[in-house]
Amino acid sequence: MVPTLSMTKAMPLGDMVFIIVAFLTLMVILKHVAYGPLTKALDARADKINNDLDSAQKANEDAAKLAAQREQELAEGKDQASQVISAAKKSAKDQSEALLKTANDQALSLRKAAENDADQLKTEALTSAKKDVADLSVTIASKLIQKNLSADDQRSLIDAYLADLDQQ
Question: Compositional bias of type Basic and acidic residues: which residue ranges (predicted)?
Fold first, then answer.
């Protein structure tokens, strides 16, 4: 038969106390030599990880703020661009209206000048026609009555006749 634990002899009490004291001493030495620095290293590692997570979160928040600021600046840029375009359109419209007004004013002044010229030509033509009619009348009258009237007398007679026609 195979010897078992219950079959073996019990350990003497002195050995048992020595083993317990040696085990406890070993545990105290391990705590100071191995577990203390190991715990400190693990705590330092945990602190570094927490600090890295905090700085990553802060960097993420800063990036989000910067992105929001860039979006706002982009929107403001678009607004300014639309305002510039609107102002340019308004300026072009105003200039176009001013040019049209100037062109219309020039056309009106040219028309008035043409009307004045036409009136002047009409007046000159009437005056010339009166003179020609007066001269012709003097010639006809002198041939009819065989008498020479002065040209000034005939002209005054014709002017009076024409003035009478103008009143009618």
Answer: 62-79
Identify the residue whose tokens are 């100071």: 32
Calculated CA dihedral for residues 63, 66, 72, 77, nearest 10 degrees: -120
pTM above 0.85, yes or no: no
Give the pLDDT of residue 143: 56
Considering Cα of 140, then 141, then 142, then 143, what sign does the dihedral take? positive
Using CA atoms in the order 42, 47, 52, 53, what is the torsion angle rounded to 10 degrees?
100
Per-residue pLDDT, 8: 57
- pLDDT value of position 148: 57
Residue among 35, 59, 39 nearest 47 (CA): 39
11 sits in the region (left: phi over 0; alpha: psi -120 to 50; else beta) called beta
Intervals of the chain under pLDDT 70: 1-8, 136, 138-149, 164-166, 168
Tokens (6 digits) for 10 = 């019990």
Residue 138: name the closest of 125, 126, 129, 147 by CA. 147
> Which pLDDT score, from 0 to 100, does residue 1 have?
47
